[in-house]
Amino acid sequence: MRLPRLRSTSKPDGAPGSRFLASVRGLGPGSVSSVLKVALDVAYVLLALITGVLLLLLIAAVFIPLDNLNVTVSGDSGGRQLPLTRMLLLFGLGAVTAYFGGFMLILRSLRRIFRTLTVGDPFHPHNVRRLRQIGLTLAVVTGGVWLAQGFVAARLAPGVMEPQGIGELLTPVFSVLIVFVLAEVFREGARLRRESELTI
To answer: Fewest CB within 10 A of the end CB: N or C in the chain?
Structure first.
């Protein structure tokens, strides 16, 4: 009795899209990380220039005359004209400068993290500190914006601009918590890498 022959069938390699995604490298030179690092470098330079210009305007606002100048504060319920006092101008420019400066600090830490990704070393020990700095800076910027908008709504433009509610803080707070969780993940990865190096 003759047994039937079994035919071996090879599985297809997959769809073209999956083959392309498999060939894309996330770490190392020429990877997606290196492209993102270049984009972060450009954004960091632009933010540094904007922050520098705002800082110069903040210094100039101490000396420029403000006679008979008004500013219009707009909100959902309409607008209101207020006299442009030096304190109001300094507060506005200072808040905007601090806002852009905070995000410049965040980009600086991100650039250093992506520099380690570009050389293929994601669990560098310094990345834990950098992620914590990003989370702390993001928390300070979020809290500063919330307090500044509440101050403007209560003191400068009551009835025109509404202060932010607690519910509007949920997304920023969630983002801050994610960054701190990522910092702990990187800390654990750095610890495991250190232990493996000691074992070898």
So the answer is: N
